[in-house]
Structure formats: structure tokens, C-alpha cells
Amino acid sequence: MTPILDKVNLPADVKALAADELIALAADVRQTIIGTVSRTGGHLAANLGAVELTIAMLRVFDPPEDKIIFDVSHQAYTYKILTGRKDRFDTLRQHGGLCGFLKRDESPYDAFGAGHSGTAVSAALGMAAARDRRGSHEHMIAVVGDGALGCGITFEALNNIATTTKRLIVVLNDNEMSISANVGATARYLGELLANPRYNRLKGRIEEAVARMSGRSNLLRRIYYRTEEALKSFFLHSVIFEEFGLRYIGPIDGHDIPRLVQALEIARQYDRPILLHVSTQKGRGYTFAEQRPEAWHGTGCFDIDTGTLLGTPAAPSYSQVFGDTLAALAAKDERVVGITAAMPAGTGLSPFARRFPDRFFDVGICEEHAVIFAAGLAAQGLRPVFAVYSTFAQRAVDCVIHDVCLQNLPVILCLDRAGIVGDDGPTHHGVFDIALLRSVPNLVVMQPRDGVELANLLYSACQWERPVVMRYPRGSCPDFRMPDRLELIPPGKAEVVREGWEVQIWALGDMVPLALAAAEALAAGGLSVGVVNARFVTPLDGELLNAQARFAKVVATVENGVVAGGFGSAVTEHLTDAGYGGRLLRFGWPKEFVPHGTPATLMEEYGLTPAVIAAKISAAIEARAQ
Same structural domain for residues 241 and 361? Predict the structure, then answer.
């Protein structure tokens, strides 16, 4: 039962509630989020921590006229529920339902789409500059997590605020975590602000005194600001945000709605850029998430009463296999070091970090820095391995080209979640990496077909004196057992997994099983069909490809990536240059932003099935015969 939430559909309804009903509304919202995410999966811990903050913002501001821009939007479920999407919230992350992140074409309340970290302040600043040019008066509010605050993009935006606008509100939602625990000087600095007991105690008393006084005259506000400024100067010395030109208020208990409303009203009336520092608890209101917020950052379906994940695969994931292999390699090769951008657990590097703490580097949400940092390590003779989700590595493409490949440095970039990832949708699908990287000189781009091949290719990459990108999908490795002895695979060496001559299907990585199933369907119709596990996008196994093309009527490619400029394009270019006269077919994802949905659902919708592939190849052979 959610009696207060039942009365709320839009922000105006939040404003209409009595002050004492807001706490009950927060409880109702938490119950709805926990119940829905237990059935759909999603980002739980951060959303539970931002419930009161979101309610307070909707109490004070007037979206969609006022623009509330959430960084990443891992914490935007409450916002979705209270901005007209409550009745559809049970479709969260389901195909055709609500997106797990903010999305401009989903609702007029979503002022700016999100999904990657560090973008909110830049976007809000751009909107504020546009508002100033129009001469309008709406508020721009950027909600930024403390993990995103360490992102270089955020710092670039902070550096630009004072010279761009006089009215911008930044809400720093500080839960002391991004996905994993925050690292670096910024995290330590915020911790000092949160943990200074004398400052917070005196500040709290002053705020209580102000709240007891009737009215809020300009004189009273000036007295409050000057008193707080003196406190900060005395106890905290230099507040870095003030140096950027932002008026700093905080830290404030992010679960105290009256105090949040009071602080936001002050920010709303202020005539210079302001940063409101809010302290929240990740996972608040659900014991299991409070105790292990990292594990509950993103979750599948689960049993609410026990916190047990439902349908968890018994087989290890590609991430696990990668992490275990890297640790085994590091035990034998002291040059091997591991790097993550704030995601040691998600990328499988947590065991490596525990086993080799002096050879593990978490650089925070700074992918560009991570790549150049790895280049520096490699320039000094180490073997840096940077594990990062494919979608996040997009930010560092220039660094890969200029700082790694141009200098031919042996950096190994491991792209986790390559290809379609499912319910997180277009902001997280890792489908563009091949098209972005395959034309870069000196670079090896490869993908294993299974866990054993991942181990062998990672071992091989550590032996090569050149830059390497290895991509692999989200999901499990069935029947995986770590080989007793790892195999050295030469760059550009493909593997024939099915003999045939009329049709050759070259498949990349996790698409090999799909290619084999399509081959079986074609063989049932009397065709001789070969299947090749390509392994490498670049260099291609041109010798094998040329040998097969002498007899094949059709050469088809299958990849878990965008076909425009992808693996299939590389094969097509090679065979076209060689004068191949048969039909060339490419199967993969179209040049469009693929929506969220389970991989099985999306593959069915986009024709990546054995039946469709077999039918198109058969049609090509028939057309060629006519």
C-alpha cells in the first residue's frame, strides 16, 4: 500500500502535500522502487539514496520549466515516478517500456539525456547560457554524484562557470561512492568536509536559529551567509568550490526533507552560482543494499525478503574469466598491472586488486586519463591492462590513437560489455568500438569466442610488443575451465570451426554459435557451409579468406557490433580489393541507436537469428544463379 504516493502524479501534487506527508511519500516511493527493481532489475542503491533529495527538489522547483539535469541518472527513478510515469514504472527497463536512464524523448521532464558520468554540469551550464541569452528566468539544476565530481569533464565545466553565467545550481549528491568506493584527492577532500564535527555542529545550530526566525529578509540572509563563510574559513580553510566561483552550502543531511527544502530555497533565491553539498546514504531503506551498496549498485531480479538474486548463472562471466586470467598472468609476469576507471567489481578486477594491491590502479571515472596513464606505464616497460566497458571507452578514442598507437606502446585495452548489453539500453550498448578503432595503425583488435579463448588471447597479448584491444560481451562462459597451459595465438590467425565451400560464414566472438546454427539450417537444404571463428578484426587472416573466396558463392559475416564500418566492412574491403566476384553479406546491428531490451528480444527483432540469416544467404545464392 502506498497511500500518499497514490495521490501524487506530477510535481504540483508534491507541492500540494502537507509537510508531514513528505516523509510518508518517501517511504512509499522506496517501497515502489524496491518492489519494481526486484522484478525488472536495475540500479537500486543510488536510487534509494536520492529519494528525499528528489522530493525536496520537486517541492522547490517547477520542472519542466526549471531544468533538473541528473548526472548519469542512476538516481532518477524517484524523479520518473513523480513526473507522470508512476503508472508505467513497472515497465522499467522492459522492451518498449521506460528507459532506466533519463531520455529526452520519453518525457518533457527529462531535460537532458544521461547514462555516462560527468555530463550534468556541462549540460546545465550550456542551458543556463542559452537562458541568459533569451533573457528568461528558469532555474538550471545539475545533480552530480561525488564519483562524477572526479571526472575530468566535470572539472572542465566547473572551471567555466564563473565566466559564463551568474545563475546555476549544482547539487552534489555525496554518498561516498560512485559504483565502487571513490578514490583520489577529490574523494578525500569531500570526506573532510563531511567529517569535520565542529564545523557541522556549529553550522547546524546556526541553521536551526535561522529556521526559528520568522520571515527571511535580505538582511537576515546576508548575516547567515557571512556567518557560514566565517565558519568555513576557520574550520575548512579553503573550500575548493569557492575558488571555482560557486557559493558553497553544506554539507546537509540528504535525508532531512525540511532542511533540504530550506537549503534549496536559499539556492533558488541566490544571485550567483551555488553548490549545495548533500550527504546521502547509498541503499537507504533496504538493509541488504545499505550493507553492500557496491553489490547493489546494479542488480538483476531478486527476492525482497532475502536479498537473493534470482536466476543467477552458475557459469563464470567473461569478466570473471578475464580477472582470474589476469591474476594468473600477473603471478608469473611482474610487468603486468591492472587499471580500472572506478569499476573494479564490474570489470572482474577486484580479486586482482586484493592479490596485487601494489600493481592495481583505480583512477576514478577518468577514462582518457586511464589510457594515457597506461601509455606512460608501457613506456617504462610494464604491461598495463585497462579493463573498461566498451561504451565508456568511447571517450578515450583520441588517447588510444594518439598516445598509444602512434607510439606503438604495448597497452592492452579490454573492452567488457562489448556488443548489445540488454536492459540498460543505447547509452550502454557497446556496439561502436570496432568501427571506431579498426582503422587505427599498429592496433590489434580481437574478440574471443569463449572463455578459454579469452584466456589464451589475453596471454598472447601480454607477449606482443604492440597495442591491443580485446572485446568481449556481457554474460557467462558455459563449460569454462581454465586450461592447464595457455596457448600463444599469433596476431591475425583465424580458426576454421566447420568445413564447407559453397558458403563461408566468418563470425566474430560470441556470434560463432549463431553462425554455426545458421550453417546447420543451410546444410539441411543441401548446401556446403563453412564457419570461421575470425578471432581478429585487424589484422585479418587474409590468407585463409583468400583461399576460401576462390570457391565460395557467398561470404557472410556476423558480428555483435554495428555493421557500418565494422568487422564485416573489413572483410568486404579485403575481398573487394582482391577481386572477389561472389555475394557479400554482413549481419550485425544497424547504424542506429538500438533500444533497451533483452539480447534475445533484440536479436529476434533485428533479424539476428539462424532462420533469418540462413534465408538471406539462400536468397543470395538463388539470385546469383539466375
Answer: no
Residue 33 and residue 143 in one domain:
yes
Mean pLDDT of the chain: 90
Q: Is residue 241 part of a domain?
A: yes
Domain count of the chain? 4
340 in Cβ contact with 331 (< 8 Å): no
Environment class of 256 (CB within 10 Å of its CB; exposed 0-12, middle 13-18, buried 19+): middle
What's the grid cell of residue 602?
A: 533484440
Portion of the chain with pLDDT greater than 90, in percent:
78
Phi and psi angles of residue 556, each rounded to the nearest 5 degrees, phi first: -120, 150
Q: Each residue of 208-225: pLDDT tens digit?
A: 555 555 445 555 555 555
List residues with catalytic annotation: 282, 367, 395
Domain identity same for 243 and 259:
yes
Q: Is residue 482 part of a domain?
A: no
Place of cell 548489453: 421
| 111 within some domain | yes
Sequence-ordered alpha helix ranges (H) in 108-195 = 120-134, 146-149, 152-161, 185-195
Q: Which domain holds residue 415?
A: 318-471
Q: What is the pLDDT of residues 393-424, one digit of tens each?
A: 999 999 999 999 999 999 999 999 999 998 89
Q: What is the DSSP code (8-state) at residue 128? A: H
Segments of 461-511 assigned E as strands:
468-471, 495-498, 503-507
SS3 state of residue 68: strand
Alpha carbon distance 385, 407 (integer Å): 17
Q: What's the pTM value of the predicted model, to 2 decimals?
A: 0.88
Residue 253 lies in a domain: yes
For the stretch 459-493, pLDDT in tens is 999 999 999 999 999 999 888 888 889 999 999 99
Q: Are residues 265 and 276 in the same domain?
A: yes
Same domain, 242 and 228: no
Of the candidates 60, 104, 277, 190, the one whose C-alpha atom is nearest the C-alpha of residue 76 is 104
Q: Check whether residue 178 and residue 47 sit in a common domain.
A: yes
Q: DSSP string of 34-49? A: HHHHHHH-B--HHHHH
Q: Which three cell numbers stand for residue 22?
A: 513528505
Residues 392 and 283 reside in one and the same domain: no
